[in-house]
């Protein structure tokens, strides 16, 4: 297995997950799995880092994955409670694993919970 620094050196110039801004102002985003912030950088990379965190929404529940992209190395946690409990649980899980991504994970959970929430019907 190659080191994470070597993998980053190989993929940083060009890969299929890069999203360059058409305006030409130099901002490069990333759509890779395991990238919470969406930034194309070594710190946030889900491919290059051995310890990455991913958050997705499946069937109204929020799924937290930790570990490499390979299916065998992932640790999955499903949160089905209300948004506050999910944020508290995700904070606890991510802080013990990668504390530098804890605040980004809480923001991502907030956005996912808002997208899952059903609007109340008005009379």
TrEMBL record:
Residue ranges of the Ribosomal eL28/Mak16 domain?
6-115
Top-rank lineage group of the source organism: Eukaryota
Gene3D superfamilies reported in the protein's UniProt record: 3.30.390.110
Lineage of source species? Eukaryota, Viridiplantae, Chlorophyta, Chloropicophyceae, Chloropicales
Similarity remark: Belongs to the eukaryotic ribosomal protein eL28 family.
Q: Which UniProt keywords apply?
A: Ribonucleoprotein, Ribosomal protein
Question: Looking at the keywords, is Ion transport present?
Answer: no
Q: Name one GO molecular function term.
A: structural constituent of ribosome
Q: Which organism is it from?
A: Chloropicon roscoffensis
Q: Which GO terms describe its biological process?
A: translation
Show the Pfam families listed in the entry. Answer: Ribosomal_L28e
Q: Name one GO cellular component term.
A: ribosome
Q: What is this protein called?
A: Ribosomal protein L28
Q: Which InterPro entries match?
A: Ribosomal_eL28, Ribosomal_eL28/Mak16
